[in-house]
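Consider the tokenized backbone below.
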């Protein structure tokens, strides 16, 4: 029998007529949910599914293995961009960076006016939303996105302990830069490392590989600390926990590349009473699905403009047939690559195939593995698959059987027996680029001039504070508006003393409906739009 969530809310202003609650996949479902649900995301950086629960015998990850045993392990979870800022911009908006103009690494994106951080919909529905603490969205995080976005943000800081929460904790322990030190001691024996076939087997490479696994083990213990706090607070049974990495491992030919080593990420989800412990699913999940799925868990219908699809909760959607990925400018170096993958095959299209894979990126050149591989390449000592990444140009297309060839080293694009698969994936990729209005072929300078004319970001208009009746009526209903298309509004109220503070500044509340004041207060109001400067602050005093 399929299990349903009986609780449902509807976001203020969302389309009317929320669909009948959809069932969870039968392979995951057990029991029924008890609302309101809390949601906790525990995330890390630059980490592939290199965990014991994924069958990696070299990994030491007892706490994440335990989390997987308590919930579900997703085997086919993929980011849309194999580098942090574009990846995160898609997560927070539920949209492809190539659609909203955030696809280049470290750019200043100006998404379309209707695009918002998905957490605004949660906050409007009564959720307390906190982020500890990385944003990295390719646009400044707006005031309206979080109740608290700081290194002190925590569900424990909400004033009403019965208020449902969405909390994010991000660990940087596994970031590529943390894996550069090559001196010992090592928890993982470099001599026992199992290297991919596209790496040479040298002590330098083995030490870098072992150091990465050491950092994953450290991160594993940090995750345990957050989960213990949840248990100590008596919240574990009513909280859906996600664990995931922001893209693939931060090693050469991983991060920044659309091979599975750069796009495939671990995803573990625990939902007591609903997801059967120890479940494993090969459902295709994209990172842009995360936000819509959290909305679904909260009983909220995702806005129609979101390109992500809920994969859990009452608004669960049919499974994906394909996932897509893009590589564009990485730091100072340009490239244009697109990819489409089903459960077995992947097609990579190199639009600038005249360029080599191993272009110079100053930051990336600090990787010990890359330095070692460049040394061996210069000495003519690389063999077989080790030479692939150092070719002087790329093939226009790459086709891989990811089941038979998980390291993606045997390009099948020219083989007659795979032409039907090649044509099918070509069409899927072409259709996706057209349907999502992929901006990747537009020069970045042109995109920037359109979004930030003359290099000066737009400034959101000052909001208007409009009381119903007079300022001295008691109580008084106050409406806030902003003429800027797509603006969100944040406010705080001083009632004879400083308003509650979150993080390093004033706590700004999200405006979603008229404010009722029953005693004297000064309203302070600001408006913001993604990619624009915040408005000047508007103030109004009410003497009641």
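A designed sequence for it:
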């Amino acid at each position: 029998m399929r299990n349903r969530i009986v609780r449902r809310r509807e976001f203020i202003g969302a389309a009317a007529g929320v669909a009948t609650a959809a069932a969870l996949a039968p392979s995951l479902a057990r029991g029924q949910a008890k609302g309101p649900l809390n949601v906790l995301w525990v995330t890390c950086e630059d980490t592939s599914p290199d965990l014991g629960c994924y069958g990696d015998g070299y990994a030491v990850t007892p706490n994440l293995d335990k989390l997987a045993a308590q919930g579900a392990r997703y085997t086919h979870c993929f980011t849309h961009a194999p580098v942090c800022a574009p990846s995160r911009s898609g997560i927070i908006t539920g949209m492809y960076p190539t659609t909203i103009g955030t696809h280049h690494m470290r750019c200043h994106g100006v998404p379309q006016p209707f695009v918002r951080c998905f957490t605004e919909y949660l906050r409007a529905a009564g959720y307390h939303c906190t982020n500890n603490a990385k944003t990295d969205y390719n646009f400044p995080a707006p005031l309206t996105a979080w109740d608290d976005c700081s290194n002190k943000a925590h569900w424990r800081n909400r004033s009403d302990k019965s208020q449902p929460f969405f909390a994010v904790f991000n660990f940087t322990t596994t970031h590529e830069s943390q894996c550069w030190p090559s001196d010992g001691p090592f928890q993982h024996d470099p001599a026992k490392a199992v290297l991919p076939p596209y790496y040479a087997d040298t002590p330098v490479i083995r030490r870098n590989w072992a150091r990465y696994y050491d950092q994953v083990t450290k991160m594993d213990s940090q995750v345990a600390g957050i989960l213990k706090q949840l248990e100590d607070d008596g919240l574990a049974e009513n909280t859906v926990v996600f664990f995931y990495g922001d893209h693939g491992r931060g090693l050469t030919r991983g991060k920044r590349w659309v091979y599975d080593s750069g796009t495939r990420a671990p995803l573990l989800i625990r939902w007591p009473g609903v997801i059967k412990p120890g479940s494993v699913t090969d459902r295709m999940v994209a990172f842009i699905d995360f936000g819509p799925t959290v909305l679904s868990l909260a009983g909220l219908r995702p806005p129609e403009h979101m390109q992500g699809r809920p994969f859990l909760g009452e608004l669960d959607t049919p499974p994906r047939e394909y996932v897509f990925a893009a590589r564009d400018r990485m730091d100072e170096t340009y490239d244009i690559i697109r990819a489409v993958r089903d459960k077995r095959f992947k097609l990579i299209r190199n639009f600038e195939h005249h360029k080599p894979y191993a272009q110079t990126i100053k930051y990336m050149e600090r990787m010990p593995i890359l330095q070692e591989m460049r040394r061996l390449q210069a000495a003519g000592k690389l063999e077989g698959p080790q030479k692939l990444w150092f070719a002087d140009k790329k093939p226009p297309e790459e086709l891989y059987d990811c089941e038979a060839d998980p390291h993606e080293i045997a390009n099948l694009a020219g083989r007659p027996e795979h032409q039907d698969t090649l044509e099918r994936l070509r069409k899927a990729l072409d259709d996706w680029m057209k349907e999502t209005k992929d901006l990747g072929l537009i020069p970045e300078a042109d995109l920037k001039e359109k979004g930030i004319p003359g290099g000066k970001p737009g400034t959101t208009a000052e909001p208007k504070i409009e009381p119903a009746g007079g300022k001295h009526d008691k109580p008084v209903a106050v409406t806030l508006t902003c003429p800027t298309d797509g603006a969100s509004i944040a406010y705080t109220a001083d009632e004879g003393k400083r308003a509650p503070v979150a993080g390093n500044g004033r706590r700004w509340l999200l405006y979603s409906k008229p404010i009722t004041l029953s005693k004297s207060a000064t309203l302070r109001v600001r408006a913001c739009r993604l990619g624009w400067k915040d408005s000047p602050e508007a103030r109004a005093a009410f003497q009641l």
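Residues 331 and 363 are 8 Å apart (CA to CA).
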